[in-house]
Q: What sequence folds into this?
């Protein structure tokens, strides 16, 4: 049975492998083990019998905005609704915290539409989003699509 839960220290090795597998393909940003450990509280995982099948993390960008980051599902586990479960968990967490809007910068437009997100113009994104972008390897020629869902 697939369980979505908060990440624990023992998950870090599997999470690291999964994220960096997709980072090598240019599908997501790489993460170091240190950055995973320091942000462990923000990460949720989907687990089945000890195997980490997917993860997603929640980054708070301000009092009115949060972002889904590091969303990934193992190749062998795709198409089983795990990505959607993980995004739903991040949406619920955002609602619980009381933040009204959740964004994603992504190439997976059809998937996020299925999760209730809509495309927004990058110019609608507040300045604080771009302060992080300066540290991103894709900066300044980012071709990701901005999407958002209202969470309150
Ligand atoms: C994108 C990703 C997380 C989707 O995970 P998944 O577990 O396979 O997705 P789900 O099974 O939960 O799919 C949910 C819905 O989206 C649809 N969907 C999933 N991937 C899709 C795609 N690439 N194109 C179109 N629709 C897609 C599914 O058909 C499903 O539709 P349904 O609700 O009508 O049945 C996964 O493919 C992945 O990890 N990709 C590589 C890393 C990546 O790109 N991460 C995103 C960074 S923002």
A:
């Amino acid at each position: 049975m697939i369980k979505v839960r908060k990440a624990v220290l023992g998950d870090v090795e599997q999470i690291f492998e999964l994220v960096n597998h997709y980072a090598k393909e240019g599908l997501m940003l790489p993460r170091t083990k240190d950055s995973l450990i320091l942000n462990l509280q923000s990460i949720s995982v989907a687990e089945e019998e000890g195997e980490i099948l997917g993860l997603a993390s929640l980054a708070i960008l301000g009092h009115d905005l949060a972002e889904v980051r590091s969303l990934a599902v193992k190749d062998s586990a795709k198409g089983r609704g795990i990505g959607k479960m993980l995004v739903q968990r991040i949406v619920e967490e955002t609602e619980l915290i009381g933040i009204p809007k959740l964004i994603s910068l992504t190439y997976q437009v059809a998937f996020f539409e299925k999760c209730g997100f809509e495309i927004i113009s990058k110019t609608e994104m507040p300045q604080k989003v771009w302060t992080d972008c300066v540290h991103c390897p894709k900066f300044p020629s980012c071709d990701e699509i901005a999407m958002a869902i209202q969470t309150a």
Remarks:
- DSSP finds five helices and seven strands in the chain.
- The chain has a mean pLDDT of 93.
- Residues 22, 27-28, 71-73, 78-84, 104, 106, 108, 110-111, 114 surround coenzyme A (CB under 6 Å).
- The longest helix spans residues 82-97.
